[in-house]
Every structure is written in C-alpha cells, then in structure tokens.
Amino acid sequence: MAQRPLLKGDQWAVLLDAPANGERLIRHYTLGEPDLDLLRAKTADHNQLGLAVQLCLMRHLGRPWLHDETLPPAVIAFVAQQLDLRPEVLADYGRRDTTRREHAAEAQRYLGLRSADRSDRRAAPQTKDVRSLRL
Predict the structure, then answer these.
(1) Which residues contact 42 (CB under 8 A, 6 or more apart)?
(2) Cβ-count burial of 102 within 10 angstroms (0-12 exposed, 13-18 middle, 19+ buried)?
(3) How far is Cα 58 from Cα 52, in angstroms, rounded to an integer?
(4) Tens digits of per-residue pLDDT, 79-112?
(5) Measured between alpha carbons, how far is 52 from 82 in angstroms, rounded to an integer?
(6) Whether pTM exceeds 0.85
(7) What is the pLDDT of residue 135?
(8) Percent of the chain surpassing pLDDT 90
(9) Is 18 left (phi over 0), alpha (psi -120 to 50) or beta?
C-alpha cells in the first residue's frame, strides 16, 4: 500500500505559521479583557506588545516566539492596535534574551500550559520530524 504525506508543505505552513491576515488573525489573535489587564500591568510599551505577541502565539500555535523568528507585520499591527500602541515599539523588545524567556514562561503560566515531561515524550510518536508522519 502506498504511503502519502500527512499534509503537503503549504498545509503545514497554514497549520504551524502565524497568520498574515484575514479571519484566522481575528480569531486567534484577538485579546480579551483579562489578557489586556495582564498586558497593561507591564510598564514599558515594548514589553506590553512583546508579551502580547508571546501570549497570542502560545495560545494559537502552542509555542513561544522563537528567537530569530520574523512574524508577519499584520500580526504585530493587529496586536499593537488592540493595545493602542505603535507596532514600531516592538523594535525595543527582547534586547535581553531573558525578557523573551520570562515572558514565554509568564504566558505559559497564564494559559495554564506546561512543558512536556518524560511521560509525554514516551507517549509521543517516535519520529525525528513530525512532518514525515505518514497515514
């Protein structure tokens, strides 16, 4: 029996990448009042926006903002607009790598998520690349 990939390359991008526009952006990156309360507790604009992006990515994609990841400008603009901030303030975010890590951990706690542990790893499929899974 022939095997076929679980998803095609463009389908993986839709699944794993931040949305660039449209309904997915609104559905997954809209902040609620409890979110805004958490974010407004940060005094610096760039930290409010940086944590907001971390929170949105963690909620939608289940992962933090990667160190060298460039997000679609539409994501930054959409999140910044909700905080009444200019997207440009994000340029000052994460100058300390520790800030990104702390915000990722804060978003994880806020969302009630946890890091995978040994039991999770034992239960996971034994493959190096999930993209190689076959039906």
Answers:
(1) 48, 51
(2) middle
(3) 10
(4) 999 999 999 999 999 788 899 999 999 999 999 9
(5) 10
(6) no
(7) 43
(8) 49
(9) beta
Task: For residues 31 and 99, give the distance between their C-alpha atoms in angstroms, rounded to a whole number.
Answer: 21
The residues near 95 (Cβ < 8 Å, ≥ 6 apart) are none
Quick one: tokens of 51?
């944590």
Q: What is the DSSP letter of 19?
A: P
In the numeric block, the tokens 């790893």 are attached to 121
Contact 135, 86 (CB under 8 A): no
Q: Retrieve residue 106's tokens.
A: 């804060």
Please tell me the distance from the alpha carbon of residue 131 to that of residue 127, in angstroms, as a whole number.
Answer: 9
Q: What is the 8-class DSSP label of residue 31?
A: P
Helix (H, G, I), strand (E, B) or coil at 119: helix
State the residue for tokens 């309360």: 37
For the chain, the domains span 18-114
Token pair for 89: 């303030």
